[in-house]
Amino acid sequence: MSDEQKRERTLLERKRALPPAARSPAALGLRVAAVRGRFELQVCAECGAVQYPPREACHHCLSTALAWRSQPDGGELISETTLHHSHEMYFRERLPWRIGMVRLDCGPTVIANVEHAVPSAPCRVRVAAHLDESGQAVLVALPEVGAVAVGTAAESEVRDAQSAVAESQKGDRGD
Q1: Residue 153's CB: how many other CB atoms inside 10 A?
Q2: Is the pTM of this model over 0.90?
Q3: Which among 108, 105, 29 has a CA at the least distance from the CA of 67?
Q4: Which helix (H) or strand (E) holds 33?
């Protein structure tokens, strides 16, 4: 393979690079909520436990009676790190990538992508479920309402990213 062919192949791979799409079937409810623009987590009908990550049985009582319910989106960013290396092409092209642990007001602690406008941990944040470019749900920690004025660059970047994902999905379907 010539150097030119290798370069073309690399460029093609980069254009097609999507986030890893492997998810548990239990996570489908999170994706459905993200499509609807809602933040929902599983709630056990037997004991009322709110849980994350999604699973087939309640982490507290092992009941399988789990329903997806809207939850308050507030929480505290308790720790964070910035990735400077990744083996995944999608992430490699977007480094550095900030992730953190958020203790939600409703109980669970989640791992979320941390938006650049969020101050360093510890701080209050709000968490939203968004679809990534592969169409899977991801959790994103955003500045707490009031921390960033509506209409600032941070808020408009989130809206722009959501629009770009929607447009790319339309293009993939041929709409």
Answers
A1: 11
A2: no
A3: 29
A4: helix 28-35
